Amino acid sequence: MNCRYLWLFLSLLLTGCSDYQWGWYVLDPTTAQGQTNLQFLIAGFYDTISVSLLSMLFAMTIGLVVALPSLSDSKLLKAFNRVYVEVIRSIPVLVLLLWVYYGMPTLMDISLDHFWAGVIALTIAESAFMAEVFRGGIQAIAKGQHEAASSLGLNYWQRMRLVILPQALRQILPPLGNQFIYILKMSSLVSVIGLSDLTRRANELVVNEYLPLEIYTFLVLEYLVLILLVSQAVRWLERRIAIPSN
C-alpha cells in the first residue's frame, strides 16, 4: 500500500500536475545549451573537493595538537583544550566564514581570496571536533599500551607516534569519515563569499534559467555522489587496517 502511494506521488510530480513547469532540457547534454550548463555545474567539483580536502588535513593537524594537552596532567593545558573546543564549537560555521573573509583582512592587513578564506574558516570550525575525535580515540587505548611503550624506553612523542596513534587510528577512522562528510556539506557555505563551488554555480544557473527544482535536484545528486564515494573509501580503509581475527 505504501509503495502504491509513493508511485502515485512520483507520477503526479513527474507529469507536472502543479503550476510549476518542469524544464529538464536545461540539463540535457545533447543540446548545446544543456551541455554548457552541465559543464558549468560539474566544474564546481574542483573547488568543493579542494577546499574540503585541505580543510580536513589542516583540521586534523590542529585537532591533534589541541587534543594532546587534554591528556596531560597539567591543569593549564587541560583548560586551554576545553576553552578552545567549547568556544570554536559554539560559533556557527557561516558566522565564522564571514568573519574570516571580511574581518581577518581588516585586522591583520592581509589580502585573502575566497578559496583560502573558506579553507581557514572550515579548518578552524572543524579543528574543535577533530580534537574531540582524537582525544576519544587516544583515551580508548588501554593503559597497558602506554606502560609497555614506556618500559621500552620510548619518550612521550615516540610513544604517541609509534604505539598509541597507530592504534587510535583504527578507533577514530569512522568518526573521521563522518567529519569529512560534514566538511563536504558545510563547504557549500563558501558560496556566500563568492567561491565557485557546486552550490555557487547552481545558484548562478538558477538566476539565469529560472528552473530551480531541476538545477537543485542535480546539485543534490552531485553531493550524493561525493558522499557515497567518501563512505566507500572509508569502508575500504577500515578493511585495510583492520586486525585479522584469525
UniProtKB/TrEMBL annotation:
<dbReference type="GO" id="GO:0022857">
    <property type="term" value="F:transmembrane transporter activity"/>
</dbReference>
<comment type="function">
    <text>Part of the binding-protein-dependent transport system for glutamine; probably responsible for the translocation of the substrate across the membrane.</text>
</comment>
<dbReference type="InterPro" id="IPR035906">
    <property type="entry name" value="MetI-like_sf"/>
</dbReference>
<dbReference type="GO" id="GO:0043190">
    <property type="term" value="C:ATP-binding cassette (ABC) transporter complex"/>
</dbReference>
<dbReference type="InterPro" id="IPR043429">
    <property type="entry name" value="ArtM/GltK/GlnP/TcyL/YhdX-like"/>
</dbReference>
<keyword id="KW-0029">Amino-acid transport</keyword>
<dbReference type="Pfam" id="PF00528">
    <property type="entry name" value="BPD_transp_1"/>
</dbReference>
<feature type="transmembrane region" description="Helical">
    <location>
        <begin position="43"/>
        <end position="71"/>
    </location>
</feature>
<feature type="transmembrane region" description="Helical">
    <location>
        <begin position="215"/>
        <end position="237"/>
    </location>
</feature>
<comment type="similarity">
    <text>Belongs to the binding-protein-dependent transport system permease family. HisMQ subfamily.</text>
</comment>
<keyword id="KW-0813">Transport</keyword>
<keyword id="KW-0472">Membrane</keyword>
<keyword id="KW-1003">Cell membrane</keyword>
<dbReference type="InterPro" id="IPR010065">
    <property type="entry name" value="AA_ABC_transptr_permease_3TM"/>
</dbReference>
<protein>
    <recommendedName>
        <fullName>Putative glutamine transport system permease protein GlnP</fullName>
    </recommendedName>
</protein>
<feature type="transmembrane region" description="Helical">
    <location>
        <begin position="83"/>
        <end position="102"/>
    </location>
</feature>
<feature type="domain" description="ABC transmembrane type-1">
    <location>
        <begin position="45"/>
        <end position="234"/>
    </location>
</feature>
<dbReference type="GO" id="GO:0006865">
    <property type="term" value="P:amino acid transport"/>
</dbReference>
<dbReference type="InterPro" id="IPR000515">
    <property type="entry name" value="MetI-like"/>
</dbReference>
<keyword id="KW-0812">Transmembrane</keyword>
<keyword id="KW-1133">Transmembrane helix</keyword>
